[in-house]
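From the methods appendix. Each design record in this collection lists the tokenized structure first, followed by the designed amino acid sequence. Records were kept in a plain field format so they could be parsed without special tools. The example shown here is representative of the layout used throughout.

RECORD:
FOLD TOKENS (133 positions):
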């Protein structure tokens, strides 16, 4: 029961983190890392480490997963750019230098009751109430 309580408390946080990660494109980076790891291990089977690293990351020898990732990212970019309204695709901000002048007030209004406050603070505190025995 205690394990389920811990899981149920962390599950909303985990779901939120995964949704945020997917919304910023982390899933593509994760899949690309898996593809590079698989390619590197496959290339290390019959090549030296320097040749395997070069062949993995040169971009000339993509694996099927790398091709699928590139295609998916391109489709996502194309779909994402076409769904935005034209007004939101490019936001232009006017660059106008403005000057803000702040002048102090010549006189401040008097608040009644403030003058009496220092006198109260200068008095001794009242005697404590009697204690019941």
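DESIGN:
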């Amino acid at each position: 029961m205690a394990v389920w309580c811990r899981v149920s408390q962390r599950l909303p946080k985990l779901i939120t983190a995964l949704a945020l990660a997917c919304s910023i494109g982390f899933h593509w980076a994760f899949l690309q890392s898996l593809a590079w790891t698989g390619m590197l291990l496959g290339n290390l089977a019959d090549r030296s480490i320097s040749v395997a690293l070069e062949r993995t990351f040169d971009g000339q020898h993509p694996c099927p997963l790398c091709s699928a990732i590139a295609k998916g990212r391109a489709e996502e970019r194309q779909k994402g750019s076409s769904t935005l309204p034209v007004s939101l695709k490019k936001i232009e901000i006017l660059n106008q230098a403005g000057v803000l002048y702040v002048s102090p007030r010549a006189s401040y209004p008097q608040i009644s009751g403030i003058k009496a406050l220092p006198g109260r603070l200068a008095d001794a505190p009242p005697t404590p109430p009697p204690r019941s025995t």
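APPENDIX NOTE: The radius of gyration is 34 Å.
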